[in-house]
């Protein structure tokens, strides 16, 4: 019994050490092994073993108390009682320490699982943060590109506005020239009409003079 308890304590000590100190891939192997133990009927089996050890522990404590009470009544303990007392005390110490190490291993396994999940979430959050930063940089580049395009369009609009103003001024000047030319044409037409009237008058005077000249000859 005592040799078995020493073996259990040794195994639990190694498991606890590997959980506390990361030595290559051994911690991951121990974690996977504990995960397998906690699956299916594993928890029930562990609880049964722990319950049995607790009962044996209480029995050993009871035996120790009985031996002490017997020795107190007799004033001394017989060599057999002393051997039994020391044996029960050693078994009790080993079982108590074994139960304590089992509880410690269970808690360490639980918190390491939480730590691994937190690290996984932190890694995912970091990747998401980097993705958001990348998208933000892309949006900033697009914004700068759009700003450049807007400035270019504004410059083009400004140039077109200036060209439109020039065209309007040229059109107004041409309209003025057309109006001036039309006025000049109207003036020339009036002068031509006056000249035609004067020409008709002169022709009439010339005919009158020719008629008078013929009259004098006759």
From TrEMBL:
It is found in: Endoplasmic reticulum membrane. Its main location: endoplasmic reticulum. The chain crosses the membrane at residues 6-23, 44-65, 85-105. Keywords: Coiled coil, Endoplasmic reticulum, ER-Golgi transport, Membrane, Protein transport, Transmembrane, Transmembrane helix, Transport. It comes from the Eukaryota. Residues 115-212 form a coiled coil. It is a multi-pass membrane protein. Belongs to the BCAP29/BCAP31 family. PANTHER family: BCR-ASSOCIATED PROTEIN, BAP, ENDOPLASMIC RETICULUM TRANSMEMBRANE PROTEIN. May play a role in anterograde transport of membrane proteins from the endoplasmic reticulum to the Golgi. This is Endoplasmic reticulum transmembrane protein. It comes from Vitis vinifera (Grape).
